[in-house]
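As a warm-up, study this chain.
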Amino acid sequence: MRQREINTAAPLIPPQPTLETLRTAAAHCRACPLWESGTQTVFGEGAGDAATLFVGEQPGDQEDRVGRPFVGPAGQLFDRALQTAGIDRAHLYVTNVVKHFKWIAQGARRLHQSPTKREVTACRPWLAAEITVVQPQGIVCLGAVAARALLGETFRVTRQRGEFLPSPLAPWIMATIHPSAILRIPEEDAREAAFHRFVGDLKEVATRISR
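Now compare it with the structure written out below.
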């Protein structure tokens, strides 16, 4: 079977996977067309025995260029929020639902495009395998795409943000906004308020981690 005909990445998951074998296999994934425009697969990174796993939507422009998750402007804001909340990123595992950057050109810029349901479905086996290997005590979904991928299509971050829910994936799972949503707020005061609310969500996570 040619890789173009694979509906999801499930057949590409290696037997008895480790994070390293998953990362190597994902580098050659062709389960959806996004590999054609992405510079490279951007796999998760962090502690292999992390108590908490954070899941975003997809890599951005800078992540696509350097091959690491959450290193661009949203990642820098994420790091600042983690530090303010008292969480050490070195103890986390951070990844995305979709492992390739989806974008359209606008002049010299590459503008983010939200992945389709098919693209999320195609890529989700990689995330499922990461969760299985890491076996976190908790999962934090950053944004609606990640939340719907792990909590179902009817989940709404606007209604259920910050709720700690049981899950077959981990003892608890919760969702909050993606840090990129904060960066898109034009008014400085509103942006600062959104940042502090995001930090508040992370402080609740920090309390869970310390139990």
